Amino acid sequence: MSTAEPASWFVYVLINSTGVSYTGIAKDVAARLKKHNAGNGARFTRGRGPWTILHMEGPMTHGDALRREIVIKKDAHFKAHLKERMPAPAPLSPFLSDAATLPSVPGAYVLLVELHRETPVQLPGRPSIALPAGRYLYCGSARGPGGIKARVGRHMRPDKTVRWHIDQLTTAGQVLGAWIFPNGDECALAARLDAFPAPIAGFGSSDCPTCRSHLLAWPQNAPQFPPWSAPVDSSPQTGIAARSVSPDSSGTRRLTTTADPGPSKAMRDKT
Fold it and tell me: Terminus of the chain with fewer CB atoms < 10 Å: N or C?
C-alpha cells in the first residue's frame, strides 16, 4: 500500500533592498534564508543580499511546491502586487510578557497566543473552524481608557467574558506576551505579517475593508518572528501549518492542506 507524500515544503519569495525578488522552495525557510544571506544559497542570490521574506505559502508536498514555484516565477503581475503591498519597516519593539510592564498609552500591539490543543472558533454567522494546536499572532489596537496596558492586560486574563473574536483563543490557550507599538496602527502590523497564513478570514477585522485577517498563524519552519525585534524562543514543534478549511460530518471545519497544482515541470534557481 502506498504512503501519501507528507506536506512539509514551503514556497517563498525573497526581496532585497533594490527590489529584486527570488522564488524558491524549502522545508525550513528560516534556515534557507540564512544560507541565502550567507552566500551559500542559490547562485542567483549570492552577492545580492541581504534578503528578506516577501511572501510564503505552505506547507505542501514537494511536487506541489515545485509546481507552485513555477507559477509564481512566471507571474510577474503577482510578484509586482506583492512588492506594492510591502509595508515600510516597523519600529523596534520589546516583547512584554508581564501586564505590569505594559504602558498606559494608545497604540497597537501583536499578541502571541499558544493553543495547546485543537480549539473550535466561530465567527458570527459562520460555521465553526477547528484551529490546530500551535502559536498564533493577533494584531490589535488600544485607543480607549488605559490604552495598551488595559487592552493587552485583559487579553492576558483567562477568566473573562468572551466578547471579541480573540477572546475565544485567549480563554482556551495561553497568552505568552505581546509586542507593543505606541501610536501604532493594527492594520499596518497585519500588513507587515502578510507572508504568514491567515487561518480565518475576517478574524478581528470584520470592520476593516483592506485586511484579510488580524489573526495570523506562525507556521512550522517559518523565519524567526517578528521582523522588528529579537524573537521569543520558537521551534518547528511549536509552529503550525498554513492550511485551508473543509467541513467534517459534525459541521465543524478542520484545517487541511491545499495547494495550487500549477504546471507539471520544475524550474529552479531563477527569478
Answer: N
